[in-house]
Every structure is written in structure tokens, then in C-alpha cells.
Design brief:
InterPro entries: XkdM-like_sf. The protein has helices at about 20-35, 85-95, and strands spanning about 10-20, 45-50, 55, 65-70, 75-80, 110-120, 125-140, 150-155, 160-165, 170. The model has no long low-confidence stretch (mean pLDDT about 90). With about 180 residues, the chain is mostly beta strands. It contains 2 helices and 10 strands; from the N terminus they run E-H-E-E-E-E-H-E-E-E-E-E. The longest helix is centred in the N-terminal third of the chain and has 12 residues, at about 20-35. Helices cover about 10% and strands about 45% of the residues. The strands form 2 sheets. Strands 1, 2, 5, 6, 7, 8, 9 and 10 form an 8-stranded antiparallel beta sheet that branches. Strands 3-4 form a two-stranded antiparallel ribbon.
């Protein structure tokens, strides 16, 4: 049976893992230097969007579509963080943000992002593994009397869903 637990943000953790590529090695250097491989701290407002370009075909003389055609899939999202230490900006800009003498071209760091929801009071957990993440934008806000926040937006290659119930991964069984 699929996981039906209700979670809050207090049950969530965000971790980063570098890929086994040149982009991943640069991401790994930043992730290790800032010690964020186990958890990216002070994270809020994580948003992941999966959009498809589903196109409807409308035949002349009909108001309803006669067929739907799956199109491109786009994965994106944002992460807010109440901390500014250069880790997320470094994951966006890569080695150029640390070594001004770096000559172009240089790679943009890429990594996997795991969002895990786990409530110790219940059985089961939910996990999204967002593969091939690259940060697209970084910004920070310095309000007069509220928390200083940074925010990044990202795009990714794919998403894996991992629902676990009592240490067993559950999900649909597809028949070929």
C-alpha cells in the first residue's frame, strides 16, 4: 500500500549529492567545503514543479479535444534558505565564484537533490530524488526587521519517487 502519511515541513530534510561528471565534481567540492551533504540547513519554502506540454488536438466542428498528445516535461523549483554563506551561490556560479583567475570555459555544478519526509511517530517515509539539478538563479533579501533569506531556483533532468512503508519500497507494478 502506498504511503498515506500526512507530513509537515518539520519532517523534511534536503540533501545534495554530486554526480559522477565534471559538473558533479565541482558540485562535490562546494558541497563538501560547506558540509551540506547530510542536510542543507535552515531551508524553507521548497517548491518542486513538474510541468508537461500536454497538447490537445481540436477537430473542426468539435468543442472538446479528440486526442491529447504528451509533450516535453520540464522540472523546476525553488529553495529558500535563512542563511547566506556562499554555498548555494557557489553551486550556481561554480569555480569562478571562488577562483577569480579561472579561465572560461568552466562547468556549472550539477547534483542530485533529495527531499525526504519522515515522521518518527508513523511508519513509512516519502522521498523525491531530483536528478541532474542545476541552479538557475540566486537572490537574497535583506529586510529591515525580518530574517535575511536567500533563494535559488533550479531546473532538473528527472524525478524519482520513493515511497517506503515499513522498510519496503512500495509503488505501482506496470504490466508491459
Amino acid at each position: 500500500m502506498a504511503n498515506t502519511n500526512v507530513f509537515t515541513g518539520a519532517h523534511g530534510t534536503l540533501t545534495l549529492a554530486p554526480l559522477d561528471t565534471a559538473e558533479g565534481r565541482d558540485a562535490g567540492s562546494v558541497i563538501e567545503a560547506y558540509d551540506i551533504q547530510q542536510a542543507v540547513g535552515r531551508v524553507v519554502d521548497v517548491k518542486v514543479c513538474v510541468k508537461t506540454d500536454l497538447e490537445a488536438f481540436h477537430e473542426i466542428g468539435r468543442r472538446y479535444p479528440t486526442s491529447l498528445h504528451p509533450g516535453n516535461i520540464n522540472i523546476s523549483g525553488t529553495v529558500g534558505r535563512a542563511y547566506i554563506n556562499g554555498a548555494l551561490l557557489g553551486l550556481l556560479l561554480g569555480r569562478k565564484s571562488f577562483l577569480s583567475s579561472t579561465t572560461e570555459p568552466f562547468v556549472q555544478p550539477a547534483f542530485n537533490m533529495t527531499l525526504r519526509l519522515d515522521d518518527p511517530a508513523t511508519v513509512g517515509s516519502a522521498e523525491l530524488v531530483i536528478n541532474g539539478v542545476q541552479l538557475q538563479n540566486w537572490s537574497f533579501n535583506l529586510p529591515e526587521d525580518e530574517f535575511v533569506m536567500e533563494e535559488v531556483s533550479f531546473k532538473a533532468l528527472s524525478v524519482d519517487i520513493i515511497d517506503v512503508e515499513d522498510t519496503v519500497t512500495v509503488g505501482p507494478i506496470f504490466i508491459d
